[in-house]
Fold this sequence. Notes:
By secondary structure, this protein is mostly beta strands. The chain has one domain: 6 Propeller (Neuraminidase). Helix content is 2%, strand content 45%. The chain has a five-stranded mixed sheet with strand order 1-20-19-16-15, with no helix packed on it. A four-stranded antiparallel sheet has the order 2-29-27-26, with no helix packed on it. A four-stranded antiparallel sheet has the order 3-4-5-6, with no helix packed on it. Strand 4 and strand 5 (65-79) form a beta hairpin. The longest helix has 6 residues, at 9-14. The chain is globular and about 40 Å long. It starts with a strand and ends with a strand.
Amino acid sequence: MTRLGPFSLAALLRCGAGRMSAKNEMLNWSLSTPMPEPRSDYVAGVVGGKMIVAGGTFWTGSKGNWIKKQFSASTHAFDPESQTWEKLPDLPVPLGAAGGTVIGDKLYVIGGFTGSQVNRRIFVLEKRPGAYAWTDAGEAPFDRVYPRVVAVGASLYAVGGTTKFEPRDPTGTCCSSKTATRSLMVLDTSHMQNGWRELASFPGPLRFYFSAETDGHSIWMFSGIYQDGPTAPITTYDDVDRYDIARGQWETGKKLPHVSQATNPPSPVFVGDGIVLINDFRKVWKLDLAKQTYLELSPLPQAAALDRFVWVNHKIIGASGENFIESPRRRSEWVFIGRFGK
């Protein structure tokens, strides 16, 4: 494991130099059409030019009397142009805390918890003539809850997660991390019959509930927590690690700014020559991948912990998640749209 050093010209080009840069631009946020069936712990991606939100969790009850965490099979699509929502076919099973990514305009969903067991099926959403549809693409050979999943080409990479769903109490308050894993697994979706391969485990402290993104050449990990059982103290990390796919090696990067203010990992989205990181206290930064520097951008208009932002039609879009208006279990209906401009 080595510290990231200055990038070569080739690395600059690999990270997107020459494409759209936000370095000298402002990020302007607005609120859009509220999300139906607000939830957290979902999978999101872009299929058919729309942001897809699949599965997730929500709580029954109300402020001061939240009863139990529920797992959802609901799937919705958000059109960034009309800013409208469309109900799509449900996932084959209720599913929260899964991982997902888009390959070939198809959303792949792996792992997660159904409310009664860990899911091993791989579900794929695609847009067919006239409709979206789910298919079952087989079974993963491992149990994973909260895996972080990204795609490079046809390859699907699953980083970390736990092997069990570890609620802290019978109502489903989430989660300790005694079964956390450092694994990095890869599946070539163009040759599914070849199965999964295990790559080098991620470095640093054991943790889960981090976030991950790719620039097309590396897998980036941000933050993470560890809790050794329901009553143990929670440790929050500000680590940044990068897996160079070509070299098959992990490196450590510059630590996150102000991680102590956040209770969730920042939501990352790759934009041009950097990764925009959005935390649950409204703070937004752009990590310049070549220089390893953080530039603070305009904050979110509201404080919310979103599972995932996407980059679609030159906009950063994120939906729902968890807000802090009516205690941490309240799901948010907010939809955020970020546009770069002077």
